[in-house]
Amino acid sequence: MITKYEVTKSLLFDGDEAEVMHKTFKLPAGDIKFGDFANNNFEDLHKVITPDDFKTIVKTGGFNADFLNLYKGSERLRLYYAKKGNSIAVFAYGEFQPTRYKLYFEGLWML
Known about the structure:
single chain, alpha+beta, four-stranded antiparallel sheet, two-stranded antiparallel sheet, 17% helix
């Protein structure tokens, strides 16, 4: 059950993909590295938490699925997640323009 959440939608990175892979981001859930979320597609989060919690995150985050059922966040970038303890951090990441990548911290949900 989601006990608390904070939706921030803040830009963490804007630049070359090679740079973001080596960065550490200081977030309320602790330090997060690119590798902590890069292989965690948001669509797979429903396998890690309850269906009701997944629906709550989608609703409170304002996330929408496209026609392929892939969820999008800020600037229509694909969503990823990192689970640390009882917290779930959600990120929007992808290529915004050729060779220009953006990473947004969408929010933090506490279980």
